[in-house]
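2024-03-11 09:14:02 DEBUG pipeline.ingest accepted 1 chain
2024-03-11 09:14:02 DEBUG pipeline.ingest length=136
2024-03-11 09:14:03 DEBUG pipeline.predict start
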Amino acid sequence: MAVRIRCVVKKGGTLPEYKTPGASGADAFAFLESPVTIGPGERKLIPTGVYTEIPEGFEIQVRPRSGLALKCGVTVLNAPGTIDSDYRGEIGVVLINFGAEPFTVKHGDRIAQFVVCAVPVGAFERVDSIGETDRG
């Protein structure tokens, strides 16, 4: 099932893209005027140049790329990050460097994955007690 997500991409930016037919996540790309270096233990917000209009009832989850995590120790800090259907600002990705060496992000680098997910809305109800389980 394809969910239509309208995107505005800044000039010179890249639309998120699925690299293979079976990919769950679409690669998200850095949109930078100049390279950004993230030192060991540092975190930085990396812009993507992408603005979205997500249908109500869906979200985009921002997830790490396993290659960056394994090879460089760089990951998405608030994974998974959530882009709500009513958010219209530029999507940024909070990267953190858990590696031992500085990591430089350049314009056009793949920095995260966007996964489109359905989001049912819960109806929270106040009650006097809840059922028990074996787990407690």
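2024-03-11 09:14:41 DEBUG pipeline.report The chain has one helix and eleven strands.
2024-03-11 09:14:41 DEBUG pipeline.predict end
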